[in-house]
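Q: Given only this backbone (457 positions), what sequence would you predict?
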C-alpha cells in the first residue's frame, strides 16, 4: 500500500474514532439527561398523589379525579396507582388490575425515598407514604415518548453526520496528504533522471529546514560520495589499463622483433631477458593492485602489535634492496613513566609492515642521501621518516594519495603510483593519520601517527 493511502486511512480511522467516541459520549449524556428529567416528572406525580391522599383523603376520589383532569403536563401511558397496607388497590387512574410486575414492585416500597424501576415498556417510580394511621404505596409510571423521539432523532443525526464527516475527511485528507507528499513525488521524479552518466544532478533541497528537505540533503551528500567513488573507479580503471598495457605492449614488441630478426642465441637471450623484466614489472603491478584492493575491503583481523617490530621487519627488506644506503633508526621522546610497554597499538602486523616498507622504499627511491627514521611515543605513537631528496612540489602534495598519481619530476623513476594509496588505506584501518612535510630542494618528512593501547593499572 502506498504511503499516501496509509496516511489517508490512518487519518480517517483516527478521526472517525474520535467522532464515534464523542458521539457515544453525547448520546449517553443526552440519554441520561432524558432519564433524569422523566424520572423527576414521575416523582412529582407520585408525590402529588401522596400529598392528596394525606390531606384530602375524605374527598379522595372526587378531588383526585378533578386534579388529574386539570393536570396539563400529562405523560403518555400515564398510570398512577395507590395501594394500602394490605396491597389493595385503592386508587388508579386507569381501569384494570395491577400486573404481577407491579405487585412485585410494591413489595420493595418500604421507605419514602423514591425507587425507580422498568416495568415492561414503561418507566416507574414508587414510594411509601405513611399517614397517621396507615401506610400507602404510590406508583407512577409512563412512557417518555417525547424523550425517546428526541433520542432517536439525535442518533440518526449523529449517524448521518458521522458518515458525511468521514466522506469529507477522506476528501480533505487526500488533498492535504497529496500536498504534503508532493515534495517526495518531485524528488522521486528527480531521482529517476539520475543515472550513471548523469551523477552530477542533485535533488531540490527546498527550504533546507523540514524533514523532507533534510532527506534531500542527505541524499545529495550520498550522491556526492557516489560520484566521487565512480570518478575514482573510472580513474583507477583507466590508469590500471594504461599501466597494464604498457608492459604487455613492450613484451609483445620484444617477442615479435625477436621472432622476426633474432638469429643467434645471444640475441635471443637478450630479448628473453627484456621480456622477463617486463613480466616482473607486470607481476609487481598486479601485486600492488591486489594489495590496494585488499586494504580497501577492511576485512582484516586486528591484534596487539609492536610498531617497533614492524619497523625492524621493514628495515630488513630495505637493507636487502638497498645494501649501500645509510639508514639511521633511532628513538625519540618516550613517556616518563615506565608503567607499560612502548609502541603497542591495535592492528595487523603484516599490513603495517607493508605500509612502513612502502614509505621507507619511497624515501630511498626518490633520494640518494641518507634516510632518518625516528620512533617516539607521547599521546600517540609517531613514526618520522625523513629523506634528503629533491622534495615534493607543493602543487603535487594534495594528490599524493591518489592511485596511479606520479609527479612529472619523478617520471624517470620506476613505479606505478599505488604505494601511497595503499599506505593511506592501511593507516586508516589502524585509526591513524599520515602527513607530509616537504620543501623543494631539501627533502621530505613523512609523519605517521598511530593510537596507543592504554596501559592497564
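A: Predicted residues:
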Amino acid at each position: 500500500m502506498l504511503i499516501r493511502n496509509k496516511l489517508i486511512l490512518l487519518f480517517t480511522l483516527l478521526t472517525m474514532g474520535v467522532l464515534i467516541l464523542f458521539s457515544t459520549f453525547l448520546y449517553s449524556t443526552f440519554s441520561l439527561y432524558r432519564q433524569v428529567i422523566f424520572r423527576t416528572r414521575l416523582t412529582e406525580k407520585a408525590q402529588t398523589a401522596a400529598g392528596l391522599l394525606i390531606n384530602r383523603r375524605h374527598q379522595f376520589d372526587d378531588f383526585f379525579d378533578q386534579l388529574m383532569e386539570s393536570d396539563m403536563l400529562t405523560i403518555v401511558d400515564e398510570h398512577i396507582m395507590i395501594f394500602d397496607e394490605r396491597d389493595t388497590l385503592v386508587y388508579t387512574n386507569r381501569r384494570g388490575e395491577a400486573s404481577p410486575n407491579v405487585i412485585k414492585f410494591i413489595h420493595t416500597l418500604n421507605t419514602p425515598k423514591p425507587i425507580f424501576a422498568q416495568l415492561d415498556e414503561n418507566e416507574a417510580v414508587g414510594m411509601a407514604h405513611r399517614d397517621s394511621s396507615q401506610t400507602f404505596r404510590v406508583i407512577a409510571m409512563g412512557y417518555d415518548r417525547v424523550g425517546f423521539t428526541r433520542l432517536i432523532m439525535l442518533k440518526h443525526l449523529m449517524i448521518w453526520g458521522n458518515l458525511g464527516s468521514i466522506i469529507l475527511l477522506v476528501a480533505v485528507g487526500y488533498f492535504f496528504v497529496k500536498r504534503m507528499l508532493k515534495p517526495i513525488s518531485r524528488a522521486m521524479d528527480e531521482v529517476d533522471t539520475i543515472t550513471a552518466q548523469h551523477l552530477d544532478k542533485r535533488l531540490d533541497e527546498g527550504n533546507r529546514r523540514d524533514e523532507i528537505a533534510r532527506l534531500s540533503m542527505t541524499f545529495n551528500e550520498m550522491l556526492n560520495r557516489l560520484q566521487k567513488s565512480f570518478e575514482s573507479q573510472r580513474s583507477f580503471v583507466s590508469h590500471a589499463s594504461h599501466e597494464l598495457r604498457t608492459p604487455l605492449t613492450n613484451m609483445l614488441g620484444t617477442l615479435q622483433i625477436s621472432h622476426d630478426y633474432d638469429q643467434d642465441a645471444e640475441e635471443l637471450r637478450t630479448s628473453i631477458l627484456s621480456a622477463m623484466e617486463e613480466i616482473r614489472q607486470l607481476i609487481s603491478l598486479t601485486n600492488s593492485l591486489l594489495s590496494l584492493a585488499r586494504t580497501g575491503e577492511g576485512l582484516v583481523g586486528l591484534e596487539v602489535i609492536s610498531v617497533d617490530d614492524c619497523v625492524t621487519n621493514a628495515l630488513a627488506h630495505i637493507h636487502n634492496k638497498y645494501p649501500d644506503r645509510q639508514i639511521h633508526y633511532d628513538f625519540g621522546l618516550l613517556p616518563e613513566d615506565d608503567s607499560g610497554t612502548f609502541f603497542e597499538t591495535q592492528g595487523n602486523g603484516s599490513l603495517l609492515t607493508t605500509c612502513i616498507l612502502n614509505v621507507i622504499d619511497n624515501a630511498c627511491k626518490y633520494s640518494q642521501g641518507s634516510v632518518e627514521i625516528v620512533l617516539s611515543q607521547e599521546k600517540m605513537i609517531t613514526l618520522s621518516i625523513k629523506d634528503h631528496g629533491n622534495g615534493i612540489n607543493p602543487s603535487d602534495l594534495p594528490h599524493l594519495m591518489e592511485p596511479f598519481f606520479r609527479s612529472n619530476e619523478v617520471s624517470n623513476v620506476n613505479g606505478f603510483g599505488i604505494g601511497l594509496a595503499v599506505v593511506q588505506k592501511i593507516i586508516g584501518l589502524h585509526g591513524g593519520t599520515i602527513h607530509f612535510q616537504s620543501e623543494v630542494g631539501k627533502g621530505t618528512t613523512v609523519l605517521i601517527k598511530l593510537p596507543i593501547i592504554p596501559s592497564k593499572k
